[in-house]
Amino acid sequence: MEGSHAGGGDQATRHGHTGEGDFAGQFDVQFEGSANTLEAFWMPFTWNREFKRKPKVITGAKDMHYTTDDNRQVLDGTAGLWCVNAGHGRQRIVEAVQQQVARLDYAPAFQLSHPLAFQLANRLIGMAPGDGAFDHVFFANSGSEAVDSALKIALAYHRARGEGQRTRLIGRERGYHGVGFGGISVGGIVNNRRKFGQLLTGVDHLPHTHLPEHNRNTKGQPEHGAHLADELERICALHGPETIAAVIVEPLAGSTGVLVPPKGYLQRLREICDKHGILLIFDEVITGFGRLGTGFAADYFGVTPDLITVAKGITNGTVPMGAVFCRKGIYDAFMEEAEHGGGTIELFHGYTYSAHPLACAAALATLEVYKEDGLFEHAASLAPKWQEAVHSLADHPHVIDVRNLGLVAGIELAPREGAPGMRGYEVFTNAWEDGLLTRVTGDILALSPPLMVSEQQIDQMVEMTRKALDATP
Ligand SMILES: Cc1ncc(COP(=O)(O)O)c(C=O)c1O
C-alpha cells in the first residue's frame, strides 16, 4: 500500500534526523527496532498518509515556543490547540502536578472525592460570569465530554421540573462542539457528521452567522447579522417552543474558522430563550479563560447563559479536563426531584476521571498563573495591536477575509481551483517549516497565541504568516 510503503521509507530518514536534537534520546527509544513505528498510531483529525510521509514532530515546549525533533524552535501561534493560554512549561503548574501525583494519584469519582475537587469547583464558581449567577460545576475530561454532559443536564433538568416534553436540542450550522454523538448532532460541520449514521434525533440548527458579502474584513464584531438570531423564533414556531430543551452555540466559533458573533446577536438569542423557557448553553471550550481578554466570552459580550462548557485553558492544556458551569436553580431541581422521589443518585452521569486529582491540581495552579501574571488583562491590552497586525494581511493576494476578536484571528484564503483546503494546508506546512505554528481549517488559518505573547512576537507571527503565504502558490 502506498501509504504504509512511503511511511516505512521515511522512518529510516527520520530516525537519522532525531540524532541531532536535545530530545533525540526520548524519540529514538520509541523508534528502536521497528520498521513501522509511525504507522501504528492512527492520528486524530489528521491527514495520516501525508503525516507519515513527512512527519511534524514536537518534542518539547517552553513559554511561546515548541521544540521539534530536529531541534528547531517554532513560535506557537495557536496556544497548542487553543489550550495553552498561559504559555508552555509553566513551573508552577509543572510542580503542582508533580506534587499531586506523589500525594494522591487517583481517587474514585463516584460516591467519594478528594479536597482539590471542591476547592477547584469553588474557585471556578468564584470567577464564573454573571455576578454570582452560577453555583455548581460538573467535571468531565474534555470539551466533547463537557458538551455531552451539558446536553444531558439540560434534558434531565426539564424533566426534573415536570417538563419532560422538552427533548429537542438546537445547535447551529458550522458549530463545533467536539466529537461525541451529542456534540456532532448539535454541531454543524458536515464532514464531522455525514459518515456517522443518524446521530441524535430531534435536533435542529440555526443558520451560521458568516456573511462575507456584508462583513468582509471586519475589525471586531460585525455590524450585520443580529437578525439571524430570529431564526430561533422560526424553529420554535415549527416545533413548538415547549418541545425545545436547549440551544447551544459557541459565542465565538473557533474551529469552523473564526466566526465572530454580529453585534446584538447573542443578546437576541438570550431574549428568545428566556421568552420560551429554553436553556441557553455557551460552549466556551476555546473562549473560556482569557481568549477574548476577559475570563469568559459571556463576560465580554455581557450575556449570561444557563450552562457553560469549558475545557482546554482550564488546565492550560497540561492534563485533560472539561467542566460544565450550571446556573443557579439547575442543581437544585435535581436535588428536589430526588428528594421527593426518594431516590439516591440525582444524576446518572459521570466519568471515572471526573475531577481527576492531577487535573484539579493543574487547574488550580493554572488559575493562579492567570491571576498572578494578569494574563487576561494582558490579552485585553494587546487586542488592539493584534487587530491592526492581523488586518495588515488583508492585502495579500491569497487573502479574501480577515476577522478578529480578543487574541483570535481568522485569515480566510481563496481556495485553489479544484483543490479546496490544499492552499491552507500548504501555508500551514510552509509556516511550520519556517518556525511558526498556525492552525488551519480548510482554507482558513486561525491564529490564537498563548496570552503571554509580546508585541514583538505578534509582529513576528504576522511576518511569518505573510512569508508562508508568499511561499504558497
Ligand atoms: C467549542 C468547542 N467545543 C468542544 C470542543 C471539543 O473539545 P475536545 O477536543 O477537548 O473534546 C472544542 C475543541 O476544539 C471546541 O472548540
UniProtKB/TrEMBL annotation:
<dbReference type="InterPro" id="IPR015424">
    <property type="entry name" value="PyrdxlP-dep_Trfase"/>
</dbReference>
<keyword id="KW-0032">Aminotransferase</keyword>
<keyword id="KW-0663">Pyridoxal phosphate</keyword>
<dbReference type="InterPro" id="IPR015422">
    <property type="entry name" value="PyrdxlP-dep_Trfase_small"/>
</dbReference>
<dbReference type="InterPro" id="IPR005814">
    <property type="entry name" value="Aminotrans_3"/>
</dbReference>
<protein>
    <submittedName>
        <fullName>Aspartate aminotransferase family protein</fullName>
        <ecNumber>2.6.1.18</ecNumber>
    </submittedName>
</protein>
<keyword id="KW-0808">Transferase</keyword>
<dbReference type="Pfam" id="PF00202">
    <property type="entry name" value="Aminotran_3"/>
</dbReference>
<feature type="region of interest" description="Disordered">
    <location>
        <begin position="1"/>
        <end position="24"/>
    </location>
</feature>
<comment type="similarity">
    <text>Belongs to the class-III pyridoxal-phosphate-dependent aminotransferase family.</text>
</comment>
<dbReference type="InterPro" id="IPR015421">
    <property type="entry name" value="PyrdxlP-dep_Trfase_major"/>
</dbReference>
<feature type="compositionally biased region" description="Gly residues">
    <location>
        <begin position="1"/>
        <end position="10"/>
    </location>
</feature>
<dbReference type="InterPro" id="IPR049704">
    <property type="entry name" value="Aminotrans_3_PPA_site"/>
</dbReference>
<dbReference type="GO" id="GO:0016223">
    <property type="term" value="F:beta-alanine:pyruvate transaminase activity"/>
</dbReference>
